[in-house]
Amino acid sequence: MKKTWWKEAVVYQVYWRSFYDSNGDGIGDLQGVIEKLDYIQELGADVIWLNPFYESPDRDNGYDISDYEKIMSKAGNMEIFERLVDEIHDRGMKVIMDLVVNHTSDQHSWFLESKSSLDNEKRDWYIWKQPKNGGKPNNWRSYFEPSTWTFDERTGEYYFHSFAVEQPDLNWQNEDLRHEIYRMMRSWLDKGIDGFRMDVINLLAKQDGFPDAENPDHISYLADNPGIHEYLQEMNREVLQHYDGMTVGEIPFVTPETGLLYVHEDRNELNTLFHFQVADEMPVMDLPKYKEIQENWYKGLQGKGWNSQFLNNHDHTRQVTRYGNDGKYRTESAKLLATMLHTLPGMPYVYQGEELGMTGVRFDSIEDYNDIAMKNKYKEEVEKGGDPKEVFEGLLLLSRDNSRTPMHWNDSKNAGFSNAEPWININPNYKSINAQQALEDPHSIFYYYKKLISLRKENPVMVYGDYEDLSKDHEKLYVYTRSYENKTWLIMLNHSDHEQVYQMKEELSGSDVILVIGNYKNDADKSILPSSFTLKPHEARVYEID
Ligand code: GLC
Ligand code: CA
Predict the structure, then answer these.
(1) Which residue in 25, 43, 99, 516 is deepest, having the highest Cβ count within 10 Å?
(2) Is 371 part of the annotated catalytic residue set?
């Protein structure tokens, strides 16, 4: 496939409100990001993805935007933002912003106008429907609410929201709206940013006629509807193709077949995507399933489109807790998952704190949580008669706050994140898991990530190599090769708390190999592959076959 800078990149995701608080109000901010850029540079990341910091009432942590061209005062201001972009570029890195254009805040002036009367100019910028048989227009549920519809008394119609009541969906059928969005995108790109992470971008087109769903709880009807590719191709023509940026679409409910349509290199839509087959279909590690998902995406995209690799972000519980072992083998397991994400085909993303092996969190009561998805679900279930304690317990593993607690910089008060009480509680384990300690320990998870990232720079096999799974029937071991030009890498991963033995493929057994990276102390860098290979708990090894 054609080589491009972004295919070779590693992205570091900064959830700025939990990264570093520069002015002592308990909330991270853009100036705080500037102050910690050397840290990100030390890790070696190429691109920084910043979660949304546009003006917002912050009901959904910035994903409810009230002005696309202003900056939330908690985050900073335009001058600081511009300085941040310069400082990132000065360090040889790039920066992408979150683009949230499926919906706005209900406080956006467009929505305030739209709801002011039936014949307002902006009425059609949102989705309004008349009541059906005196009730809601259909039976759909939204991500965060029991219904996608909220009634507006003044005009006697319902508006549509895929997320919270406070996040009305824009009507992409309206051409003026689309062109206003394209203008806004150009204005940010003209300020020098290097692209976008596009929030739920395959939700823009809605199902024609909004028919009732057979199973309203299965909300895939919100995504991937006819018309979406026309919008994205138009966006590409109007905006994206004029810049050498990168775009990654957040694309729920797609398979390799439908996902390819978004990222096929000949289709001029997006560069790469986040699909949710792992996050949505695999609540805990299920290695055979994970391998199958990797295989299908590899085959589906190979030679045509580019994948992305992640196991956590600001919406998903930290990976070492969800898919590894965050107790006895936390360090090994964090390094193992990193080895996997950085050696599978596709761009790796590192979510802040992942490089420290930060873990999920468990607060005592629902009041300690902030996540609107969790809080709304709690309310809904309790109102339906659920036992509050049971409902609460049931929501803990996947609460988005697991990954939103502040970054651990050191073992001082508030983990060195802020002088003030932070906006959300800190994970109490910061005394033993923090950046200062990691930077002082050459065997830390941090330096393991740094090595993986630097290997990518010297070894195109990690980026462009063909992939072959050599462990299809194994429950706990994941063994695969990547091959490019004259180089073959063998990756061996033990996803379990016990030793596992791998029967080496005939053609590999006896080969001379060089150890590229591994997460246990190894005696020899050069060795010969034995016919049966024992891997320690959560062991990861990458060999180059000589
Ligand atoms: C995306 C974001 C998530 C947000 C939602 C609505 O999934 O990652 O944080 O709540 O979209 O914008
Ligand atoms: Ca602050």
Answers:
(1) 99
(2) no
Q: Read off φ and ψ for residue 229, nearest 5 degrees.
A: -70, -30
Kindly report, residue by residue over 477-523, the tens digit of the pLDDT.
Answer: 999 999 999 999 999 999 999 999 999 999 999 999 999 999 998 76
Q: What pLDDT is attached to residue 442?
A: 97
Domain boundaries 466-545, CATH class = mainly beta
- Helix, coil or strand: residue 5: coil
Phi then psi dihedrals of residue 292, to 5 deg? -65, -40
C-alpha 271 to ligand 1 mean position (Å): 20
Q: Give the atom of ligand 1 at the shortest distance from the alpha carbon of 102.
A: 12
Give the pTM.
0.98
| Pocket of ligand 1 from Cβ distances under 6 Å | 60, 63, 100, 163, 199-200, 250, 314-315
**Which of 167, 200, 280, 314 most suits a substitution to test ligand 1, by most atoms within 8 Å of the C-beta?**
200
- State pLDDT tens for residues 407-461: 999 999 999 999 999 999 999 999 999 999 999 999 999 999 999 999 999 999 9
Q: pLDDT at position 473, please?
A: 84
Query: What's the pLDDT score for residue 51?
Result: 98
Catalytic entry in 64, 199, 224, 539 = 199
Question: Do the beta carbons of residue 491 and residue 480 sit within 8 Å?
Answer: yes
Q: What residue ranges do the domains of the chain occupy? A: 109-160, 365-399, 466-545
* Radius of gyration from C-alpha coordinates of the chain: 24
pLDDT at position 503 is: 96
- Tell me whether residue 265 is one of the annotated catalytic residues: no
What is 59-93 written as a DSSP string?
Answer: TTTTSS-SEEEEE-TTT--HHHHHHHHHHHHHTT-
Please check the confidence at residue 344 and state whether its pLDDT lies above 80.
Answer: yes
Report the top-level CATH class of 109-160. Answer: alpha beta
Alpha-carbon distance of 97 to 187, in angstroms, equals: 12
